[in-house]
Give the backbone structure.
Amino acid sequence: EVQLVESGGGLVQPGGSLRVSCAASGFTVSSNYMTWVRQAPGKGLEWVSVIHSGGSTYYADSVKGRFIVSRDNSQNTLYLQMNSLRTEDTAVYYCSREYSSSSHTRNDYWGQGTLVTVSS
Amino acid sequence: DIQMTQSPSSLSASVGDRVTITCRASQNIDSYLNWYQQKPGKAPKLLIYAASSLQSGVPSRFSGSGSGTEFTLTISSLQPEDFATYYCQQSYRTPQAFGQGTKVEIK
């Protein structure tokens, strides 16, 4: 059974750092594209970052230069290192597997989300 | 970047109604369009991928159509468990933007 479990969310002051994790089971993280999506309170979904199976990484303009996506193949875990946090980064952060077939990709499995609150 | 616009932002409907949600892309995305359902406090759930392919396990009352820049999600007969927010997402190019969402409420 495929499962994604996020952890590491919490309260952090503006300008601070936090790392959230996403532990996967039932499939291999390093063989898939893995995505981070966030949702501010009462707002819609915002695509944040992706790491490809080959290791290439991409970021939304809103987080570029501040966030880093990575993975630990031995732990089958995805990470999002968030630096220079701003109040507008407050959101539930979801990790998701991006599955591809016939060149069409979609986010077929999602974690339950972890809440990051940036506030003084 | 490609922008996605959904309409309406919200709608009220009754059980048994046929519901249609529209999603427009700011440029041609062929059929690289996915639809998700989200209930309060829960993660999004994939409904439709590649504009019209039904994800495994999703009821057949959900269907998707369109290509290029205009797409629709149709619920043929609204059920109580379908009251939720629906999002489209383009998978044509990174960043894979989402629409702003359409909230389906009980009339």
Chain B is about 0% helix and 50% strand. Chain B has a mean pLDDT of 97.
